[in-house]
From TrEMBL:
It holds the Pfam family YdjM. GO terms for molecular function: hydrolase activity. It comes from Streptomyces roseiscleroticus. This is Metal-dependent hydrolase. The chain crosses the membrane at residues 32-49, 100-118, 124-143, 150-167, 242-261. Keywords: Hydrolase, Membrane, Transmembrane, Transmembrane helix.
Amino acid sequence: MMGPAHSLSGAAAWLGVGAAAAAADRPMPWPVLLVGALICAGAALAPDLDHKAATISRSFGPVSRWLCEIVDKLSYAVYKATKGPGDPRRSGGHRTLTHTWLWAVLIGAICSVTAITVERWGVLAILFVHMVLAIEGLLWRAARGSSSDVLVWLLAATSAWILADILDQPGNGADWLFTAPGQEYLWLGLPVVLGALVHDLGDALTVSGCPVLWPIPVGRKRWYPVGPPKGMRFRAGSWVELKVLMPVFMVLGGVGAAAALNVI
């Protein structure tokens, strides 16, 4: 899928988690619901760090382009080293390592550990990175072009600072779900994991499928492209994505937010 659909699906997924948490009598304070949705929207773009033409590759200027090249080469090396007898030859690492459940869990764990060990500046860094990605994804065309990069970074930095201050206030959710001393912001890894997995599931709906199960082998393939039957798949950027899935994500996100805030 394309950037806007990925980001919308990520935000909708976290709002759905908010609704489930409210139903389970562990409601999210509104700042957690908002910040989690934005992080999840940003994290839903991050698996494409293995593709030099993806939204994330231009989100942080030369740094992200350089990082995309490294991740692409790393992913390709892992693919070659671990592919099964039924896996095809490849010329690059796109839709391999970063499109797996293991990568999603690893990145989420890194964010959680960073948040509780580096504390304030770690939280700000996580928020800033994902705010940039969320803006790039949700405002895809408006945020395109090098002339807008600085504005996006300034908006993301300002938003990260304000939201961190709001979360720090008593009762606003710094310790949501994890309440032991020293576990503030441990939950920040959850929307990161969810966003990456939602990205993988979205890609699984496209014609190429997605090897989200790696390293679990399926038949003779270790990089089995999970997906529905061929007739139910679509091409990225097609009318199915733009005219059907994106409106559905918007509606589901609205319903999830309303349920999470006990409006319905």
